[in-house]
């Protein structure tokens, strides 16, 4: 049995999370108090301001989002396959689908994050 530092109740040890560096191997607050504290610290989700910003982004970038969804669906259906290495530098790892033209959603180059960032910087330079 152990007394919770949160609610002051005497509870069995299995009502406390394990904590290796604690003297008795258990947390100082019971699971109920730990969960309540975590809920209170968590920021509220779907705030009206955030929903509005997301809606504006979707409205301004409709063509871009359609291209992203088309890539996702083509990959799922097997119409498109992702290579294992970057088309620019040849590095293996996580790859991004880079669209040169969002009007052609399945015409992409598979680039690592660094090359993808460089490609956008180059396009911004050309556009300016």
List keywords for this structure.
43% helix, 2 domains, 4 helices, two-stranded antiparallel ribbon, alpha+beta, 128 residues, elongated, 16% strand, two-stranded antiparallel sheet, 6 strands
In brief:
This protein has 4 helices and 6 strands; from the N terminus they run ββββαααββα.
Q: What does this 3D model show about the protein?
A:
This protein has 128 residues and is an alpha+beta fold. The chain has 2 domains: 2-41, no CATH class; 48-127, no CATH class. It has 4 helices and 6 strands. The strands form 3 sheets. The protein has a two-stranded antiparallel ribbon with strand order 1-2. The protein has a two-stranded antiparallel ribbon with strand order 3-4. The mean pLDDT is 93.
Main sheet strand line-up: 1-2
Can you write the helix and strand succession as a string?
A: EEEEHHHEEH
Provide the β-strand percentage band: 15-25%
Estimate nothing, just give the exact number of structural domains: 2
- Averaged pLDDT: 93
Instruction: Output the radius of gyration.
Output: 25 Å
Biggest beta-sheet profile: 2 strands, antiparallel
What structural class is derived from the secondary structure elements? alpha+beta
Low-confidence runs of at least 5 consecutive residues: none
Number of helices: 4
SSE inventory with pairings:
Layout: E1 2-3, E2 10-11, E3 16-18, E4 26-30, H1 31-41, H2 48-60, H3 62-77, E5 96-99, E6 108-111, H4 113-127
Antiparallel strand pairs: 1-2, 3-4, 5-6
């Amino acid at each position: 049995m152990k007394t919770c530092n949160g609610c002051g109740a005497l509870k069995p040890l299995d009502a406390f999370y394990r904590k290796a560096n604690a003297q008795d191997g258990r947390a100082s607050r019971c699971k109920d108090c730990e969960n309540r504290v975590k809920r209170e610290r968590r920021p509220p989700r779907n705030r009206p301001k955030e929903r509005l910003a997301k809606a504006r982004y979707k409205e301004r970038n409709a063509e871009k989002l359609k291209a992203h969804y088309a890539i996702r669906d083509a990959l799922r259906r097997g119409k498109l396959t992702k290579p294992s290495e970057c088309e620019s530098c040849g590095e293996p790892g996580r790859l991004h689908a880079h669209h040169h033209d969002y009007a052609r959603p399945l015409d992409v180059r598979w680039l690592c994050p660094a090359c993808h960032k460089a490609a956008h910087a180059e396009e911004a330079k050309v556009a300016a």
